[in-house]
Design goal:
21% strand, four-stranded antiparallel beta sheet, alpha+beta, 11 strands, three-stranded antiparallel beta sheet, 307 residues, rod-shaped
């Protein structure tokens, strides 16, 4: 009975079995029922190679809810400040909480290449994260630089663990919460509100600029177009008058008297056509002489005396 009981073992679907004979690794076993030498000659160590493992920093998961509507509970009040408090590049202290998810890629290396692989992962991760945060400004880590910090830390941690031949492959490094320490949160909130007011003012100014600048450009374009049109009109008119003058000058040189009289008659015709009435006054006569209206419907009349 003892021989039978110690001669078989079961590997779960998400596990890999490492079979050792007197401490020496003999083989690996996949999911299912397997047999081995009894009486402790061969021993089996099971590793969850198909499961995503997780290391938490700055907090611990108390319970994971499997019921819809209920949230997973976390413990962040414990003595985890040694993990989470970090110094940034601008000498500010911030509280960084993050997780590292990984898979066991090579179970034999995971068990035997490093003495305590889990502790090695935690120490390496904490050291790399502190360096990544320390190379940046605190405002960047608190706002826009979180993704960059996580990506840089993941690459660096994986490189170190590969060098150690730990048999681990990282899945993700994710910053859960980045906040200033409790003692400086009021001051940080005031600074954050000031920055938000600044951004809001800049956005309003940019909105007004986007509205006024195109309007001003349109008015300027219209003024330029009108000025160009007016200049073109003046130039064309000047050229026309110059050409007309040259044509008249040529006629004048051929027949001065005729041209002079024609110009006089044209000028008087244009001048008199705008007049409503014409009065001819003799300086030696005391009263007005009869006048002839230029309108076609008018009749001659006399003013100040008889005809």
């Amino acid at each position: 009975m003892v021989v039978l009981w110690t001669s078989w073992f079961t590997v779960q679907p998400e596990e890999t079995g490492i079979v050792q004979r007197f401490g020496k690794v003999m083989r690996t076993a996949g999911p299912g029922l397997h047999f081995k030498l009894p009486y402790g000659i061969e021993t089996v160590r099971l590793l969850p190679t198909a499961r995503v493992l997780k290391e938490e920093f700055g907090f611990r998961t108390v319970s994971v809810s499997t019921v819809p509507g209920q949230k997973t509970r976390y413990d962040s009040r414990g003595n985890y400040k040694d993990e989470s408090l970090m110094l940034t590049g601008d000498l500010n202290v911030i509280d960084v909480r993050w997780i590292v998810q990984y898979r066991i890629e090579d179970p034999i290396r995971y068990l035997f290449q490093v003495r305590d692989t889990s502790k090695t992962i935690r120490d390496t991760t904490e050291a790399v994260m502190r360096r990544a945060v320390g190379n940046r400004l605190g405002s960047d880590v608190l706002t826009t630089g979180r993704v960059a910090v996580a990506s840089e830390a993941k690459n660096e941690i994986q490189k170190i663990l590969t060098t150690y031949e730990s048999g681990v492959r990282l899945v993700t490094v994710e910053l859960q919460d980045v906040t200033p320490p409790d003692t400086v949160k009021p001051a940080f909130n005031e600074v954050n509100e000031s920055r938000q007011d600044k951004e809001q003012t800049i956005n309003k100014a940019q909105e007004q600029a986007n509205r006024e600048i195109p309007k001003a450009r349109g008015v300027a374009t219209q003024s330029i177009s009108e000025a160009e049109g007016y200049a073109l009109e003046r130039v064309n008119r000047a050229k026309g008058e110059a050409n007309r003058f040259e044509a008249i000058l040529g006629q004048y040189e051929q027949a001065p008297q005729v041209t002079r009289r024609r110009l006089y008659l044209e000028a008087m015709t244009g001048f008199l056509s705008d007049m409503k009435g014409l009065y001819i006054v003799d300086k030696d006569q005391k009263a007005m002489v009869p006048w002839l209206p230029l309108e076609s419907s008018g009749q001659p009349s006399a003013q100040g005396g008889k005809p």
